[in-house]
């Protein structure tokens, strides 16, 4: 108990900085839409800002950066399964789309 | 003795934690369970977003321009995606106040913890209110889970399912926050310790985290 209590003693300024950073990053991702950036640049920028924000929230706000590796791996490694699912579903969706183009062109 | 194994860095430490004759994780039970719950919740939201990707990629009809669908007209000015941007900033701010509440809780400052948790809950409630506004606007425009006058029908289903489930999480979080905040104020945790505030915080940050992904994939993509 005392160990965890001691670990949580970060100065408030850390949170304020992260908060500010999240604000700026959200502003950036909003700008991507506002200035109508399109194509691969748009998707790349969206993903970069998204992962930066997610990383900040998980590492600092959720304190994962200060947890032990055993816990970090337990939480982060299972998400690899999601990447596999995304890849499989992307292939499947492509196939569905092509099938629809062939058979439902009149729609 | 245990200290030396606990401080072993890298993989050696991981192996020690899993193999040694002791508890694997050195965190409070409730906190570990909250993390496991959040991991399962991650999978739920990932499945929603993946199915959204699948229907969007395979839709032959045009996908609606979210930037226009969620635009607001303020003082004659047409601003794209404004409502969603405001909602994003509100949720991030609530995450900030929550992080500070956790900090003050461990310092034993009950009053500040209570106020900050209540502020977090208020911001969360504002978020849900704006989402209700957004929903009623879209329903008014004729968007339904099964149809959508602006293009692909799957847009309606994805929108209501994903934002609805997220909104439900925010609502539950607001209630959770209010309950715990009240107990903090009453001194309920004076003897138990304030891990509970951090656990509540984990849940709340997760709700913010999910929104980051919804914002990127559903609204911006």
From TrEMBL, chain A:
InterPro entries: Cyt_c_oxidase_su4_prok. The keyword RNA-binding does not apply. GO terms for cellular component: plasma membrane. This is Cytochrome C oxidase subunit IV. It comes from the Bacteria. Pfam families: COX4_pro. The keyword DNA repair does not apply. It is a multi-pass membrane protein. It is found in: Cell membrane. Its main location: membrane. Keywords: Cell membrane, Membrane, Transmembrane, Transmembrane helix.
UniProtKB/TrEMBL annotation, chain B:
One of its GO terms (molecular function) is cytochrome-c oxidase activity. Keywords: Cell membrane, Membrane, Transmembrane, Transmembrane helix. It is found in: Cell membrane. One of its GO terms (cellular component) is plasma membrane. It holds the Pfam family COX3. It is a multi-pass membrane protein. GO terms for biological process: aerobic electron transport chain. Residues 31-221 form the Heme-copper oxidase subunit III family profile domain. PROSITE patterns: COX3 (PS50253). InterPro entries: Cyt_c/ubiquinol_Oxase_su3, Cyt_c_oxidase-like_su3, Cyt_c_oxidase_su3-like_sf, Cyt_c_oxidase_su3_a-hlx. The chain crosses the membrane at residues 32-49, 69-92, 113-135, 155-181, 202-220. Heterooctamer of two A chains, two B chains, two C chains and two D chains. Cytochrome bo(3) ubiquinol terminal oxidase is the component of the aerobic respiratory chain of E.coli that predominates when cells are grown at high aeration. Has proton pump activity across the membrane in addition to electron transfer, pumping 2 protons/electron. Belongs to the cytochrome c oxidase subunit 3 family. This is Cytochrome bo(3) ubiquinol oxidase subunit 3. It comes from Aliikangiella coralliicola.
């Amino acid at each position: 108990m005392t160990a965890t209590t001691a670990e949580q003693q970060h100065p408030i300024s850390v949170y304020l900085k992260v908060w500010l950073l999240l604000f700026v990053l959200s502003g950036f991702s909003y700008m991507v839409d506002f200035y109508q950036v399109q194509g691969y640049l748009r998707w790349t920028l969206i993903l970069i800002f998204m992962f930066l924000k997610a990383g900040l929230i998980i590492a600092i706000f959720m304190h994962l950066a200060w947890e032990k590796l055993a816990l970090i791996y337990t939480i982060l490694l299972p998400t690899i399964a999601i990447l596999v699912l995304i890849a499989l579903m992307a292939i499947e969706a492509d196939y569905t789309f092509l099938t629809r183009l062939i058979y439902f062109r009149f729609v | 003795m245990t200290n030396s194994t606990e401080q072993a860095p890298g993989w050696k430490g991981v192996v020690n934690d899993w193999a040694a004759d002791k508890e694997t994780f050195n965190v409070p039970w409730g906190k570990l369970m909250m993390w496991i719950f959040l991991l399962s919740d991650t999978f739920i939201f990932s499945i929603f977003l993946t199915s959204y990707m699948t229907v969007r990629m395979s839709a032959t009809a045009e996908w609606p321009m979210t930037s226009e669908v969620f635009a607001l007209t303020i003082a004659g000015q047409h601003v794209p995606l404004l409502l969603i941007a405001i909602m994003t900033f509100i949720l991030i701010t609530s995450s900030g106040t929550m992080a500070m509440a956790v900090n003050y809780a461990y310092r034993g400052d009950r009053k500040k913890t209570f106020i900050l948790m209540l502020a977090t809950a208020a911001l969360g409630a504002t978020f849900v209110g704006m989402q209700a506004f957004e929903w009623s606007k879209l329903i008014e425009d004729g968007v339904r889970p099964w149809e959508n006058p602006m293009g692909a029908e799957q847009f309606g289903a994805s929108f209501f399912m994903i934002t609805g489930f997220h909104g439900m999480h925010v609502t539950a979080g607001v209630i959770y926050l209010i309950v715990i905040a009240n107990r903090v104020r009453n001194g309920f945790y004076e003897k138990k310790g304030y891990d509970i505030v951090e656990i509540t915080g984990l849940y709340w940050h997760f709700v913010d985290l999910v929104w980051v992904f919804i914002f990127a994939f559903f609204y911006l993509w």
